[in-house]
Amino acid sequence: MLNRSMMRFTNRVDIYSQTYLTNDMGQKVSKWNLTQEAVKCLFVADRTTTSIRITPNQIEANYFLFYFNYDAPIDYGLRLKNVTNSTRNESIDNSWLQVIQIDKEMSYSGKVQYLSVRAKSVIE
User: What is the pTM of this model?
Assistant: First the structure.
């Protein structure tokens, strides 16, 4: 994997994709399967929060910012979990995060340098 930027990807994250199963009653049930383990990234906690549910109680959703290498397997509809440091011995965040925004950051030469991914904590 060629690194086109000077950015250091000091964290790791696991990437999950969604599949649907049919239970005995004929209902579709979603299941999250691990597709990529320990993908290099840079994790930045964004401090903006928004209230998702007001009744019966108020639940806040947290937003996070990830930077990935330009060829990372990131797409909408994926979930991220288990953010750790680069040696995988210190857990930073172990909650489910939904990918909500993907931006390609360009260099001066016109090539994609890295991906900027915004994720939101999942409230179910």
Answer: 0.80
